[in-house]
Amino acid sequence: MMMSPDVPLLNDYKQDFFLKRFPQTVLGGPRFKLGYCAPPYIYVNQIILFLMPWVWGGVGTLLYQLGILKDYYTAALSGGLMLFTAFVIQFTSLYARSKSATIERIPTMNVLAEEDEHEFTSCAGAETVRFLIPGKKYIPNTVFHSVLAGLICGLGTWYLLPNRITLLYGSIGGTTLLFFFGWMTLCIGEYSLIVNTATETATFQTEDTYEITPLMRPLYIFFFVSVDLAHRLLVMFILSAGTAITSYFISSTVGVVLFMTGFGFLLSLNLSDIGHKIGTKSKDLPSSPGKHFIWKECLFYIIILVLALLETSLLHHFAGFSQISKSSSQAIVSYGLMILLIILWILREIQSLYIFGIFRNPFYPKDVQIMTVFLEKQTRLMKIGIVRRILLTLVSPFAMIAFLSLDSSLQGLHSVSVSIGFTRAFRMVWQNTENALIETVIVSTIHLISSADIWWNRNLDTGIRLLLVGIVRDRLIQFISKLQFAVTVLLTSWTEEKQRRKRTTTLCILNIVFSPFVLVIIVFSTLLSSPLLPLFTLPLFLVGFPRPIQSWPGAAGTTACVCADTVYYYQMVPRLTAVLQTAMAAGSLGLLLPGSHYLGRFEDRLIWIIILECGYSYCCINIKGLELQETSCHTAEARRVDEVFEDAFEQEYIRVRSLNKHFGNVLTPCTILPVKLYSDARNVLSGIIDSHENLKEFKDDLVKVLVWILVQYCSKRPGMKESVHDTENKEKGPLILPALKTSLPPKSAEDIDSLNSETFDDWSDDNIFDDEPTIRKVIEEKHQLKDLPGTNLFIPGSVESQRVSDHSTGTVPENDLYKAVFLGYPAVDKGKQEDMPYIPLMEFSCSHSHLVCLPAEWRTSCMPNSKIKEMSSLFPEDWYQFVLRQLECFHSEEKASNVLEEIAKDKVLKEFYVHTVMTCYFSLFGIDNMTPRPGHILRVYSGVLPWSVALDWLTEKPELFQLALKAFRYTLKLMIDKASLGPIEDFRELIDYLEEYERDWYIGLVSEEKWKEAVLQEKPYLFSLGYDSNMGVYTGRVLSLQELLVQVGKLNAEAVKGQWANLSWELLYATNDDEERYSIQAHPLLLRNLTVQAADPPLGYPIYSSKPLHIHLH
After folding, report:
1. I need a labelling partner for 250 at 20 to 30 A (CA). Which of 256, 345, 431, 872 fits?
2. For 1105, phi and psi rounded to 5 degrees?
3. DSSP at 170
4. Are the C-beta atoms of 374 and 1045 separated by less than 8 Å?
5. Cα–Cα–Cα angle for 981, 986, 992, rounded to 5 degrees
6. Any idea where the Pecanex C-terminal domain is (predicted)?
7. Is 199 helix (H, G, I), strand (E, B) or coil?
8. Angle 836-842-846 (CA atoms, 0-180°, nearest 5)?
9. Nearest Cα to 876, choosing from 884, 886, 867?
10. How far apart are CA 1026 and CA 1039, in angstroms?
11. How far is CA 933 from the centre of its chain?
12. Considering only CA atoms, which of 357, 969, 455, 431 is closest in space to residue 669?
């Protein structure tokens, strides 16, 4: 549900909480606004603790001003007093905790937790001390923080001595202000270090496990004071040490150049990934293709390194070293680099949809709706991309190495500036070749067109020039992105009606009036390379805190909100990664920079791609998958993403519409990638599943499918396959089996009633379901019944339980012939062995029938023989024989047809199949042989079978149960296919259907584990039956694996970082976790809701996040 833009940014409760937390953050920890009534001594004690550093610093300052102590003795005195005070404060806290009635372990501080009320009894009571001084969790931190407090106080006293400040700045007013605010700053830092730590606005993690937060403010103070006091000493030391080390260890200029070239190349490689692969592949077989690829890759890098070192040494040693002039060798290389840059820029731009993100590329394929035509035209572009990759990977680095090797700065004695500049330059050649080429061309162009006497050419060597140009280039790109982000936030807050608030006009006017200050904020954020934070995503801009490229703590891909839809991203990511490799190498995604963000779209899937790291011929990325169950905000922004891609790819462009009309959007379409993934189609089955004729045919088809599945299963069992060859080479004797059918006794009234009942309450004897060992014991006690009376008594469902392994011998052991399970027959008392009925013996007419015989436990029965006989009329004997004749389980083709013909005519084998098939049929439909209803179909499809006498029998045999359920699902799919494609003509066509289901389909439920396994195994098709309760219709869901087009666009990285910075501040500091808060609502240009989703948990909720994926670009 969309929220009105005038809803408060923070609700009343959060506003009160924020007003309590913010003053505490400003003052470093004192809590002067509690939200409840507290005694006055609580506030007085906090003031005393807060001013304690100033008191000890004031004592030292007074002694210094009176001339009693020197400045360093003053610093030592103040620092020592503060150290003693810090230990007293910490031990007081420990004592108060030990005196507590209930000793509790101090929990890990959770910044999301809010303050609880406290009850105070006295000024120095245990509860008061625990409130004022929570204490440290670890003893080492107690010592370290106390020592640091003394050191900070001593340095601060030395830095803020009035005489020193007056000498530095020469102003009494300035000295007074600096002295006052300086000591306020020191008091704030000391309080957060040794008394109580405030929650920082720069909160990065939800929990401060190791108590890092108390160190932040003191360390800031320490760095500023140290730099101001010792900057001259440090600079001189670094300059001297750098020059001495460089001159001493590498005295030869050739050696320096080789060192820079070699290490620059090695450090630009993905050494960790290469080492991991070598370690992994070393366990493989020597001939494995993966191992060969790794060694080929290593050989390629070794050759490149050798060639680079050879080129560097030769050019540096033999070429003339003169200042750059139009006739020099370096100038000639410069011209070549300019031409190379222009060619690479053209080749890169024609790979992408838009040039500069504004003008449509005339070379990009327009027929994207026709996949074959699009792929054909894109293949041509990819061939151009190969040329670009060769120029970028092989030609450009060696050309730039030639430019650097010919520079005159490397000929003389090396200074620190030369070492720093050229070390960075030689590495950038490989680390980021495109940017290095731009920087080199800019530096060489400036040098060629400018005078040699200007400061740039006279005082700076080429390495430092490249460094400065690189910094300017990087910050300029950031500034443009941040400025575009700020303008978008400002304009859309007014132009987008749903984003307009009551005070939007005021905010817009303030931004215009104070635009110079806004620009200063943007520039300062750019210089620090920190996010531009729009407070609550409104046009209120602040400088965020610097963050790593991935923006979140922890390794990429370690957390995700896994759900049932996650499996689709697991299947898609390996395929997508392979296609991204080609696209990145060709330049279709533009300039690859660490921290870049891309968004992919296909059907209901949204793929978020982050570039974590780039180097020579490799790129490390993280891929996230967003939720498929779309909320209203998600849907609104996903619809806008679709509109952006449709306008870019799916319309005929003419000259008038050659511009990107979505230029203000943070998403700029780049390219389309063909990826093999699942297309999701959902259909309404009304008119099919509720058709009486279809349901009637469903029953007939189910028997056929059951026969086919059971025959296929029995013929492919491992035990059967192993004995096929032996059976062909051995002469088998007759296989003797107990009979399934004998003369039938008259039906009793109870038997007739049981056939018409669905409860079978009378069938409750536990002995009916005794297991085989019990049966064996009973039979052994009967002294191996050899010859029983000749009366053929009917034993309902009796069947022998012969082992499969005994089949290969040709005869059945005498003891096993009488392992009968008496289902539906009264239990036999041990004292009445003479009443044991006679079991007549039967034999297979074909010696090979056991190869497709059902397992012994499946031939047990739970139904009266009368019911079996009644339902046997439904058994399709002609289909059964046809299925057997199609088997392929014999090595000898000549004998196969004859053997299969004999098996098909075996009546005993047929009786086994009739019994098992019809019992399964009875289990699936219940006692009444009536046309099923759609609801019944859905329940059985889902594995919920109706209760019947055969239900327990079937569920006790999990393998048979799964086969019966599989047959039921195949039959449903067959019914849908017949309704859609027409009736089946003959048995051969029916087998083709079933073989296709078995080979290419998974038919089941989305919630099943096997569904996920089928997706990961990339089954070509998946089908699931469902019911839409809102529409009241039955639905079918079909997933089809095919090569489809995924649209990819580039996101404004600064817009993403800014929104993530606000998300972190809003949730971790302001604790504004309202699910309908303003900053999470849909924004059509900023894609605010999608950006929040893509953040790492617990702040975001992507359903999939990959481990860092290493992509090779050569």
Report:
1. 431
2. -145, 120
3. -
4. yes
5. 65
6. 952-1106
7. coil
8. 160
9. 884
10. 14
11. 42
12. 357
What distance lies between CA 376 and its chain's CA centroid?
32
Over residues 288-327, the pLDDT tens digits come to 444 556 788 888 999 999 999 999 888 877 765 544 444 5
Q: Helix H segments across 195-288?
A: 216-249, 253-267, 271-281
Using DSSP's 3-state secondary structure scheme, residue 926 falls into coil
Q: Are 569 and 605 in contact (CB under 8 A)?
A: yes
Q: What is the dihedral of CA 543, 546, 552, 557, to 10 degrees?
A: 130
Which whole-number Å values give the CA distances from 720 to 166, 321, 1030, in the listed order?
A: 100, 84, 50
Which residues have CB under 8 Å from 232's CB, separation 6+?
none
**Contact between residue 817 and residue 834 where contact means Cβ atoms under 8 Å apart:** no
User: What are the residues whose beta carbons fall under 8 Å from the beta carbon of 769, sequence distance 6 or more?
Assistant: 952, 956
Give 683's strand partners.
1036
Backbone angles phi, psi at 624, to 5 degrees: -120, 145
Q: How far is CA 713 from CA 370, 720, 858, 960, in A?
A: 43, 10, 13, 10
Joined tokens for residue 57: 């610093």
Cβ burial of 76 (10 Å; 0-12, 13-18, 19+) is: middle
Exposed, middle or buried by CB within 10 Å (0-12, 13-18, 19+), for 43? middle
- Residue 1114: closest CA among 595, 477, 392, 420: 392
The residue assigned the tokens 């399964």 is: 920
Say how many C-beta atoms besides its own lie within 10 A of residue 1072's C-beta.
22
CB count within 10 Å of CB 980 equals 9
State the Cα–Cα distance between residues 317 and 258, nearest whole angstrom: 11
Burial 305-327 (b: 16+ CB within 10 A, else e): beebbebbbebbeeeebeebeee
Cβ-based neighbours of 556, under 8 Å, separated by 6 or more = 550, 610, 612, 622, 1105, 1106, 1107, 1108
Side chain identity, residue 426: F
Claim: this prediction has a pTM higher than 0.90: no
Can you name the residues that pair with 667 across neighbouring β-strands? 1051
**Contact assessment for residue 1052 and residue 590, using Cβ atoms and an 8 Å cutoff:** no
Q: Kindly report, residue by residue over 966-980, the tens digit of the pLDDT.
A: 999 999 999 999 998
Cα distance between residue 365 and residue 649, in whole Å = 9
Residues 521-569 have pLDDT tens digits of 999 999 999 999 999 999 999 999 888 887 887 778 888 899 989 999 9
The two structure tokens encoding residue 729: 């080479």
Residue type, 538: L
For residues 1004, 1006, 1012, 1014, the Cα torsion angle rounded to the nearest 10 degrees is: 30
pLDDT score for 429: 94
C-alpha span between 559 and 569 (Å, rounded): 15
Tokens linked to 736? 């003797």
Nearest to 136 by CA among 92, 78, 173, 181: 92
Q: pLDDT confidence of 461, banded at 50, 70, 90?
A: confident
**From the CB of residue 44, how many other CB atoms can be counted at a distance below 10 Å?**
11
Q: How big is the CA angle at 711 (ends 705 and 713), to the nearest 5 degrees?
A: 100
In one letter, which amino acid is 933?
R
Do residues 334 and 444 lie in contact, with contact meaning Cβ atoms separated by under 8 Å? yes
Residue that the structure tokens 């953050």 belong to? 25
Q: Quote the radius of gyration of the chain (alpha carbons, Å).
A: 41
Asked whether the beta carbons of 971 and 698 are under 8 A apart, the reply is yes
Question: How far is it, in rounded angstroms, from Cα 747 to Cα 393?
Answer: 89
Closest of 610, 579, 578 to residue 594, by C-alpha: 610
* Helices 139-159 & 216-249 angle (0-180, nearest 10): 80
Token readout for 911 is 């009786």
How many residues appear in the chain? Answer: 1114
Pairing of strands 1001-1004, 1021-1028: parallel
Bridge partners (DSSP) listed for residue 1039 = 680, 1022
Distance CA 843, CA 553 (A): 73
